[in-house]
Amino acid sequence: MTGTRFGPAGRLRRLIGTRSRFAVAGTALVVGSLSLASAQISPAHQTPDVPGGYRSWAALYAFQARLDKEAARVQSVPGQNASDGLAGVVADPDAHALTVYWHGARPVALRAVLAKARVPVTVRTAPYTAARLQSAADRVVARVRRQPASMVTSVAKLPDGTGLKVGISGTRADAGRVRRELGDPAVPLTIVPGTQAQQVMAGSRWNDLTAGGSLMVAPVCTLAFAIRRAGQAQMLTAHHCFGVGDTNYRYDTNDSGQAGNRFGVLDSPTFVRNGATVDAAAIRNLSKNAFQPYVWRGTNGSASGDGQFKAKVVGAATPQIGNYVCTSGSRSGEICNIKVVERVDTYLASFGTDGKKTLYGPGWTGQQKTSGKSSAGRGDSGGPVYLDNQSSPGSGPPSGGVTAVGVISAGSVSKPCQGVQNRFCFRNVTFVGIDDALHALDNAAIITTNGDKTFPAGTRPGTVARPTYPVHEELVDAGGLSIDVSGNNIVATTDLNAPGDEWVFTDAGDGWTNIRSSLGTGALADADDAGNLIPDSYKWKFTDLGDGWTQIVNFDGRCVSTKTLGHQAAACDASDPAQRFQVVEVESDDHDPATPVPGYTPGSKL
């Protein structure tokens, strides 16, 4: 492949290079409710030899920061679209250069950015743009969601723009069948067998929860960073740390390792984008101690606090492929020498030992580069991921602080644990990028010692699940039609006082909502072409379209429409007035408690 290299002074030269891909052994994380057993303390991490020929880790991180700055400038070049634009970037300090993959015409704005670059930049031609690959990835995910028995465990855009990488739990012999199941996404697919679903890692850090990296219960999880949301200082963590059946309150830990004082409560709804839950949540402070822009570093949590110290959070940045990052989970302590190898659009993560899996995304995969070591483990979920700024990662209190890049979500490929033993730990860690997490939480800001930091919101439509159940609602579309039940049929009516236009919303778990008629005649559900009910199609989520309008979306990515009532859900079209609803609460929770619908109640169907 022929590429163009731009040097620090804007010099242009030609070179011949070979295209590289980043292979990842697995992606999937598990969040579990863990009891606090006796903690065996081991060194938080090893200080490996500095890679890439750098004199010190400080030199590596300094150059990595320069790469990331130039990568952000390239990613923000205006005028990109599905036909002409960026496919991906790799900011790899080991390569001592930034690699940009671009499809189509290179605009003046891009050439201007490259000419001013202060690091070597190689530009390579890509077959597809990131936007084109994202559209293909969305189609693949939609297919996977229609097939509960699918072997697909992850979907990722290849950074060189050559296609999609699809991880499957099966063997090489299963690859052909999976290709047929996924259909033709119009871009090449690289099938990677043996990619197991990840496990979520839902474990002083014990009793000072003003900083990220501290331990909360129950279940055992970790706090990430202080954020500002809705005008309040809150704490960022992983969404999966609040499972079905868990209370929304969280506690610190006393000297005996038991739940101590209540310090916070979940304050954010479930956020779903492209059918996948963004694994981020916000905790509102209930204590007298303010959340602060610091993270715990050093060893894992213990009552004594030996080997632990706080570091300033001085900034926040979007992670890049090729970066070296650190994690600081409450059960593992600080672990560094983790290299970001992949941007994952979706990943399956299992909870506990019941085998139940949930679709999450987007995220980034980091891989431990020290042989035989882990990146994170159970109990570290929700913890901080950051760029280190000191000369030897984990050697002691740093002078430069840390730069926030993400929140620990899941892990794969079992490795020996650091910190607390007798739990599951993993070489690969999947984390939510700090920008994606803040976007999902109402475009919140991260609090740093240099002021609040936000990321441009962009166009990121998502789904917000209703946090309070049961509620009674009317569903009125943009044309003034209300969804009504007449006998065993669903109809659209202009009579907003019709007896059958009241619907009861109940919690179906995992961010889903059941919508059943208040008359008791049935629940909203979808049917196939033969008129048969589709399993799980009675579960719905709500996509916020802005200005008080919402779409009602099922597990298959199809939407309620007043045009197709009595038949099937429709292909989603946010511009269609028949799919734009105002959800009007007609009464509060004063009704008799309604129970979640365990399955479809015979009667109405879409």
Give the helix/strand layout.
Elements: E1 2-6, E2 12-16, E3 27-29, H1 57-75, E4 85-92, E5 97-103, H2 108-115, E6 121-125, H3 130-145, E7 152-157, E8 164-168, H4 175-182, E9 189-192, E10 197-200, E11 215-216, E12 221-222, E13 226-229, E14 232-237, E15 249-253, E16 259-266, E17 271-273, E18 276-277, E19 281-285, E20 294-298, E21 308-316, E22 324-329, E23 333-344, E24 346-350, E25 357-360, E26 363-368, E27 376-377, E28 384-388, E29 402-414, E30 425-433, H5 434-440, E31 445-448, E32 451-453, E33 463-464, E34 471-477, E35 482-486, E36 489-493, E37 503-509, E38 512-517, E39 539-546, E40 549-554, E41 558-559, E42 570-571, E43 581-587
Parallel strand pairs: 3-10, 5-6, 8-9, 21-29
Antiparallel strand pairs: 1-2, 1-6, 4-5, 7-8, 7-24, 10-29, 11-12, 13-14, 13-31, 14-19, 15-16, 16-19, 17-18, 17-33, 20-21, 22-23, 22-28, 23-26, 24-25, 26-30, 27-30, 28-29, 29-30, 31-32, 34-37, 34-43, 35-36, 37-38, 38-39, 39-40, 41-42
InterPro entries: Peptidase_S1_PA, Peptidase_S1_PA_chymotrypsin, Ricin_B-like_lectins, TRYPSIN_SER
Region (Disordered): 359-400, 587-606
Biased composition (Polar residues): 365-374
